[in-house]
Amino acid sequence: MSERLVDAYDLVIFDLDGVVYLIDRPIEGAVEAVGELHRAGVPLAYATNNASRRSAEVADLLNGLGVPADPGEVVTSAGASAAVLAQRLPPGSKVLVVGAEALRAEVRDAGLEPVARAEDRPDAVVQGYGPQVGWADLAEAAVAIRGGAQWVATNTDRTLPSPRGPLPGNGSLVAALRTALGREPDLVVGKPEPGLFATAALRVGAHRPLVVGDRLDTDIEGAVRAGMDSLLVLTGVSGPVDLLSAPVERRPTYVAPDLSGLFEVAGAATVPPDEVEGWRLEDGAGPRLVGDGTAIDALRLLCGLAWMGGDATRVAPDSPAARDALHALGLA
């Protein structure tokens, strides 16, 4: 039996939104893929920038979707941010929380006192995504930070995926404060910082983890910073055009349409590839895509062109199959 991509790794670290589920709906094939990994005895972890749920809540959500998960397998930016603050501040210090109740609970469990107003004179402000966060919350945070409070952001994701398309994420709310204050947060805890991935690997003693994500700017860059291989799946935020224009620090080891890529023959999902079955690029008046094959294999081939400085967005089709592949990739 040929070795599968996943067989080369001793831990698979999943992002959640856009990889396993969209808000609260499982992505097609995700339940089956995770089930196959469990049956094969592959250690799993889940690392999410979403600070609106605690680890136990995330595990409950996954189990409710048919994805077996234990709270110990889940690393959230909310829990990591609270842990960082507990290291930086004396026990009982006041922290102004901008975000969901899950973030407040994590701060409380870390031995700190969550508050909601600048007049409480907090030592720090921690800012995470929460669907009810509004202008009044941002105003209190702005006053507290100008008064000397440390400013910690759980993450700076500009958007979060949903069945209706990308919606404003915590990074958009951080940007509002950044504009008002004229400065950056003192610390960003979540991806693309490598801490969540390093924590997940440390928990199980993994030496060769694989990160699976849907975002180049968080999941893939975070994996690169952590020195880990990564698989980009095209079920969430980043798409083919984004991948073609990705800078070096945001380039994945592999790309696949979805989690089925974990079970491809080793090397079949590598990007850029050594060779691609069915496709080739020829140059005349300009680059042309020649042959017949899958759209994802065409994308992998085009990444080789783009990452060497070529303009893969101007590749012309040389056959109906090539035209269909470019159209599927949004490059027609």
UniProtKB/TrEMBL annotation:
A molecular-function term among this protein's GO annotations: phosphatase activity
Signal peptide stretch: none
Source species, domain of life: Bacteria
Gene3D superfamilies: HAD superfamily/HAD-like
CC terms in the record's Gene Ontology section: cytoplasm
PANTHER family per the UniProt record, alphabetical: 4-NITROPHENYLPHOSPHATASE-RELATED, D-GLYCEROL 3-PHOSPHATE PHOSPHATASE
Protein name: Acid sugar phosphatase
